[in-house]
Write a structure and sequence with these properties.
InterPro entries: A/G_cyclase (IPR001054), Ad_Cy_reg (IPR032026), Nucleotide_cyclase (IPR029787). The chain is of the alpha+beta class. It has 3 domains: 66 residues, Multidrug-efflux Transporter Regulator, Chain: A, Domain 2 (Orthogonal Bundle), CATH 1.10.1660.10; 146 residues, no CATH class; 160 residues, Alpha-Beta Plaits (2-Layer Sandwich). It has 16 helices and 13 strands. Helix 8 packs parallel to helix 11, helix 12 packs across helix 13 and helix 13 runs antiparallel to helix 14. It is globular and about 60 Å long.
Length: 402
């Protein structure tokens, strides 16, 4: 067992020593404060991310005491855990002589979120920056580097999502169907998760490992949200929740065959650019690009819906392929500039169900629309359907301008 000083442990976990003390006081983190097990870094990062999502730490601690869940498995969350470096992101970028706009473009091409100023760099983020700097020094143009990184990112994400879905369908879902609670299931499958990760990903590189960690964290955060008791209305940081928008270009694969990879990539880049600008103007957040899709976050449903239609109008004006847009409202789990959880998954599933030029929203999004804004839109309920990853039938609403 590797023990770290409180200062070193806090640096790796990306928090303060005061936060560690609070977690110890609640019983979420063990020990007397003199030293910390390096394996508990993920426990702290997961607990603080859930707090940021609106789950109060006392509620989490009470659920642990009541036996609804345990965080002991977090030491086995990843077979090669990634630590933070203690280097601020802007300092790491400046030290390599990389322009900020180039870093933003390359990370977007890979499907990674933008680095936040002042936030400590992850070890893998620092090495990826070093690789980008080395590739540019070797003479690769930014356009060619962005194209190959986009291919790397899309391939890596498809790989880890296939692994995640296999684990869910073959390991987790059968246990849940047999009556196991989410907390017990997460604890009992931890060792198997590690074994399968080693078999599937030992030979893969840093970007693939990062994508795997994102997918695992998303799944764990979702299961813990399911395991916790429902909170009364008004309890928590976000009672109404955020509205997440997932939008992608329809028929992108066919587009590459029709106009070629280079032109298709340019259209995807144009789509990303208008998504970024449209979200910012509306006061929302551009979370990340996913090749031919984008993920946005807004503080309320009305702004998210207005922006979705503006985005669709811009795409039409620029002669881009038709968009498919999905909206979902609820809590999200923020982590490393990205967002995870059931709300994000539902927005992606809604977009996948949408037809070309169609906007689909979940019932929570429709319910959050202010009465004064409802006359601007028509909401037509579809027949409830079972979406991938959601056990109960879900009702989606086709939204159109009134």
């Amino acid at each position: 067992m590797t023990l770290l000083s409180p200062a070193d442990f806090a640096e790796r976990a990306g928090c303060t020593e005061a936060q560690l003390s609070a977690l110890r006081g609640l019983g979420i983190l063990g020990g007397d404060g003199s030293g910390h097990d390096a394996g508990d870094v993920n426990r702290v990062r997961l607990a603080l991310s859930l707090e940021a999502a609106g789950i109060a730490l006392p509620d989490l601690a009470e659920a642990i005491r009541a036996g609804l869940l345990s965080l002991d498995f977090t030491g086995q969350l990843m077979f090669e855990p990634v630590a933070l470096t203690g280097i601020a992101s802007e300092n790491g970028i400046a030290g390599l002589g990389l322009p900020v706009d180039v870093v933003r473009r390359m990370r977007s091409a890979m499907g990674l979120s933008e680095l936040e100023p002042g936030a400590p760099l992850r070890e893998d983020d620092r090495e990826l920056l070093q690789l980008i700097a080395a590739a540019r020094a070797a003479g690769l143009s930014d356009d060619s580097l962005a194209r190959v990184l986009r291919v790397f990112g899309q391939s890596a994400r498809r790989t880890v999502e296939a692994m995640r879905d296999l684990f869910r369908s073959q390991v987790e879902e059968p246990m849940l169907a047999a009556g196991a609670g989410s907390g017990a299931m997460l604890a009992s499958t931890a060792a198997l998760r590690l074994q399968l990760q080693r078999l599937g990903f030992r030979a893969l590189h840093l970007l693939q490992r990062r994508m795997l960690e994102d997918a695992v964290f998303d799944n764990v955060a979702t299961r813990i949200q399911e395991a916790l008791p429902a909170r009364p209305a008004g309890v928590g940081a976000t009672s109404a929740g955020f509205t997440v928008v997932f939008a992608d270009l329809t028929g992108y694969t066919m587009l590459t065959h029709r106009v070629g990879d280079a032109e298709a990539a340019e259209q995807a880049a144009t789509f990303e650019a208008i998504g970024y600008e449209t979200a910012l103007i509306a006061g929302g957040r551009f979370i990340k690009s996913l090749g031919d899709g984008i993920l946005l976050q807004f503080g309320d449903a009305a702004t998210a819906l207005d922006t979705s239609f503006r985005l669709r109008d811009h795409a039409t004006i620029l002669a881009l392929p038709p968009l498919r847009i999905g909206l979902a409202t609820g809590s999200v789990v923020p982590r490393d500039g990205d967002i995870f959880g059931r709300t994000v998954n539902l927005a992606a599933r809604a977009a996948a169900e949408a037809a070309a030029d169609e906007v689909l929203a979940c019932d929570a999004t429709v319910e959050q629309m202010p009465a004064v804004r409802r006359p601007s839109y028509r909401f037509t309920a579809r027949e409830p359907s079972t979406l991938k990853g959601f056990p109960a039938p879900t009702t989606l609403y086709a939204v159109s301008r009134a």
